[in-house]
Write a structure and sequence with these properties.
A hairpin with a 5-residue loop joins strand 3 and strand 4. The model has no long low-confidence stretch (mean pLDDT 95). The protein is of the alpha+beta class and 173 residues long. It has 4 helices and 10 strands, in the order E-E-E-E-E-H-E-H-E-H-E-E-E-H. It has a single domain, classed as Glutaredoxin, CATH 3.40.30.10.
């Protein structure tokens, strides 16, 4: 597995990301995530339509909460023309509780606790932490499964570029 030293910072500290540096034009990598304790979701289970993958380190932290809510509010107007996901290493139970408490209905939560394949294949698994986390990032794919937008947020504790990601998602519809 490739490693990208100092690819991002976490609270100012350089961090290594495990996996490739994806770019627009690449195909969406396959993954297997958990959506409940008993079921998994892979790329093949996502619909062939514009897709947004909003990746957060931990759904219960302030910036991750803001990111999830902002994307949820913005994509609700797009309805069924898109499929949107929040991906983290939180358990499916924690993700469901957060979404229920925060009234997040337009984004599906995917937990990479199963085998870290999302983190490894999308190049967002942070190496060297006491608790595994994913680096904050956003990926947009068109209906053919080609990435049209990729953002690895350079400082993990900062918010992504919502406007650019949403413009890419709308263009991919």
């Amino acid at each position: 597995m490739s490693k990208r030293p100092a690819a991002v910072t976490f609270k100012g500290n350089p961090m290594t990301l495990v996996g490739p540096a994806l770019k627009p034009g690449d195909k969406v990598p396959d993954f297997t995530t958990a959506d409940t304790a008993a079921s998994t979701v892979s790329l093949k289970d996502t619909p062939a339509k514009a897709r947004l993958f909003s990746v957060v380190p931990s759904i219960d932290t302030p910036v991750c909460s803001i990111q999830t809510k902002k994307f949820s509010d913005a994509v609700s107007a797009l309805g069924d023309s898109v499929a949107t996901y929040t991906v983290s290493l939180d358990t499916p139970f924690a993700q469901k509780r957060f979404c229920s408490d925060s009234k997040i209905e337009s984004m599906k939560s995917l937990s990479d606790t199963h085998d870290h394949s999302f983190g490894n294949n999308f190049g967002v698994l942070l190496e060297g932490l006491a608790v595994p986390l994913l680096a904050r990032s956003v990926f947009v794919a068109d209906k053919t499964g080609t990435l049209t937008y990729v953002e690895y947020v350079s400082e993990v504790t900062s918010e992504p570029n919502y406007d650019a990601a949403l413009a890419a998602l709308k263009a991919a519809v």
